[in-house]
Automatic annotation (TrEMBL):
UniProt GO MF annotations: metallocarboxypeptidase activity; zinc ion binding
PANTHER family assigned to the protein according to its UniProt record, in alphabetical order: CYTOSOLIC CARBOXYPEPTIDASE (PTHR12756), CYTOSOLIC CARBOXYPEPTIDASE 1 (PTHR12756:SF11)
Any GO BP: proteolysis
Cofactor: Zn(2+)
Record-given protein name: Peptidase M14 domain-containing protein
Signal sequence interval, chain numbering: none
Species this chain originates from: Micromonas pusilla
Family: Belongs to the peptidase M14 family.
Amino acid sequence: RRPAPSMHRGSLVRTALTRVGSLSSARTLRPPPSRPPSAMAMSAATFGTAAADGVPYGFSSSFDSGNGELVSATRHTLTVRMREEPFTKADGRAHFQWFHFRVTGARGRALRVVVQNAGDASYPDGWRDYKAFASADRKHWRRVQTTTYVDGELIIDMDPTPGDCVHLAYFVPYDYERHLDLVAAASSHPNVSHVALGDTLDGRPLDCLRFGEPGWWTPEPAFAGSLPEDEAAVEAVAGSLPPWSRDGGAKRVVWILGRQHPGESMASWWMEGFVRRLLDAEDPVARKVLRRAVVYVVPNMNPDGSVRGHLRTNAAGANLNREWENPTPELSPEVLWTRNAMDATGPVDLMLDVHGDEAEPYCFIIGGEGCPGWDERRASTQRMFKAAYARACPDFQTTFPLEYGTAPAGNVVTAKTQVTYRYNCVGMTLEMPFKDNVQLAQPDGWTPARCEKLGAAA
């Protein structure tokens, strides 16, 4: 990791054509913390100790998104602990549940990995029926079907492998280099503008992609004078949105956010499917969307936490999805830069915040119910969006949860509630499973490929 400079200023939100706002704010940056000394010593010394004790394995989590500390090793069993994140004041605890580590010396050996502190993790109910991911080459991942959760320990029993190295992870990792590749590929498209909204506490840019140009749209010639029946019905319900009329209207402003919680790597895979479809010039749906809307995408809201191997927090230990009411440059600059950019782009019409759920075996949306100003217009628009999403991709469903809990009165600390309240629009949280969608279950459960298809369908 490159050392962070002592001070930074938030960059201006820039696009190719317009300056949408200034996000300048000075703050002290905190450098990435070193690995716990005991973990570093254990990781570095594994081979030497193993040689003396006759234990054949090497162990490491010192890489992008790595999390895991070796406790002990025998010829057939490795005992591992997940590393805690900084204490989170909003949640009253130090989170942990994400793991990603490498075992070497595994060729031809049956191996048991015991994650010792699984029962103390942030969401222990998530271990029920859970199966870990494993890969020999970091490209092809499979579920370890012989994963069990017993007496507070996650036990991963591995069959003998043909390779000498195996990576194990909570979900398939989506590393920072791949994120940069996606941003670069999108930015090279003539219809996409890139801006760094500001810098994170570790000094990484907070990347934002703008698809399309702000302004007005004009109807296609075939639609002059009338609208298709289904689109007219949409307008009848969403009456306060800019009108779709004979002369067109103001483009919708749509924001898509991903990975506020860094351990939910399925959000990055979803983003890849979503972004690549919007880039497809041969896709009539993508072309039509960009005729009528300008879409702002923040593919990874929490790159620091992603690289550090965190489940829920950024470099300072902030749960970003509890910072939307009062974000600060010292604790939650990622939210501050994004919210300021939303203010600068004009009223938001729709926001989707993409997440993963440790326990629930469904893809579902929770909206702004209960936030100040929630009304039937927004409820109806949200119902229509969900119904359309279910038609576009059957992996998304609308029957669970049967009833939404309402946010406490005045609670606008999450992205969906703050955006819904602040811009009088529809803000939603999309959740995907770590395990599987039980309504369309597959042997490998929920996978990156299914995330991408769900993203493309959005």
